[in-house]
Amino acid sequence: MEAKVLRACWKWRNYPPGHGGGGMQADAEVLLNTAGRRLLADMCGVEEDVLARALPSWEEENAKLRAEAGDPVGLWRTGGAVAGPVAFGCRLCTARRTGAAVRVMRYTPRWERVCVRHGRWLLDADADQPLEHLGLRGLPEVVAARQRWTRVARRAVRAGAEPERVFALARAVVARWWEQAYGWERETIWPRHLHLVAGGDAGGDLEWWRIVGRDAVVFPEVVTVADALLDPSMAELVWVDSGAGRPRALPMDGSFCRALGERVGRPWLGPLAATDHGGPLLAWMGSVIRLRRGAGGPPGYDNDPWWLRQEHRAATMAGQLRVLGKERKVPGSGTMWRAAVPAEQRRLITSTIDSAEEQLLQLRGVQTGPTAEVAQRLLRGLGHSAGLIENAWKRTAVAAVNGGVPLEEVARRVDLPVEVLRKMLTADMQEDDR
């Protein structure tokens, strides 16, 4: 049956989820009421208990459906909101098992995105982009990392940690490195691997490929970091670096970060990781230290090493592509700075802006207070926020130039003449040198 003919058998209470640029999301999922499930089971000749085992969304309840009775009714949802991350399935595996090389979607956690048989990385299905997979030819370390993760997951279970949370934390750590790697002159592994997953050359649209190829390229490092964070000997290094029983500030050349850099094949990474204040790695180290000191307080996120703050979570491919699309349509759009600014600075900027808005209410007479003083505080707050945003995009531009992006391309993205940008960056670098 044609899809549109099949859908006509149910009454729909909403529209399929779509992309901003048009078209239905590939991970669109359907919820059915009791009559709707019964109708589908009759049409396909499969018992409902079998469909319940095969389809994660089969018995999902929804308030809009519970009130429906009699008529078969359907409701559209995004797959991620129903049962977790959705990825494209491997068409070659599908053809091998069914005889038809058609597009399929699977609820698949990120550590199962490698098709070992065909050497493919299966991409998220919720993003507005045309690819279903990336080729892993020439990247045996990605396939090997998939096999290593099985051992790491078992190790997590033995340590009393949930493998999903361990993986999420390690991915957040490595994704943060990925964003910073633009400015790492000694980083040679990731650029080479990114070109390989891009078919040989990512230079034609480097920013797009950095978003689409990130999870595949960094997967070996994610597994390695997860393994390291589960290693008691690595936790002991954190304790020693903290001064053990005699507390001190964590050093730049600490043993833990140095050992972590060596594990991921980058002996020079230690000081860079150690000085990344406000990131998920330092948060994990803080939890380990508090637990050893017995200063974590009652059970909760503060003394849970695997608790990942919302602002530390790795940005999704779909979200990054949406921001990139908006920036290309309207350079310097209002949401772009959030993608370029580290999480801790986003919080500071947002807090300052919120404070300025409250002061503006005072200025309008909603609250009492001397008008001149309120105005001065407002201007100082807005000026401070503007300075933080300006510094953030300057650092982003410098990192892009250092990472090999042509100055002309950076100037186009920030909507400035090349000569003006060159003078600004030169003055900024000279100021840093002083």
Note the main attributes of this structure:
434 residues, mainly alpha, 3-stranded mixed sheet, 3-stranded antiparallel sheet, 21 helices, 6% strand, globular
Describe the structure.
The protein has 434 residues and is mainly α. It has 21 helices and eight strands. It has helices at 3-7, 34-44, 48-54, 63-66, 79-82, 91-98, 140-158, 163-180, 189-197, 206-212, 214-229, 232-241, 255-263, 270-274, 280-293, 317-329, 336-340, 343-363, 371-402, 407-414, 418-433; strands at 11-12, 28-32, 73-78, 86-88, 105-107, 114-115, 120-122, 133-135. A three-stranded mixed beta sheet has the order 1-3-2. Strand 6 and strand 7 form a beta hairpin. The longest helix has 32 residues, at 371-402. It is globular. The N and C termini lie far apart (71 Å).
Structure summarized in a few sentences:
By secondary structure, the protein is mainly α.
Radius of gyration: 25 Å
Contiguous helical run count: 21
Task: Bin the helical content.
Answer: 55-70%
**What does the average pLDDT come to?**
83
Unreliable residue stretches:
none
Total count of strands: 8
Strand order of the largest sheet: 1-3-2
Going by helix content, strand content and strand pairing, the class is mainly alpha
Strand percentage: 5-15%
**What general form does the structure show?**
globular
Assembly category: single chain
Distance separating the two termini: 71 Å
SSE order in H/E notation?
HEEHHHEHEHEEEEHHHHHHHHHHHHHHH
For the biggest sheet, the summary is: 3 strands, mixed
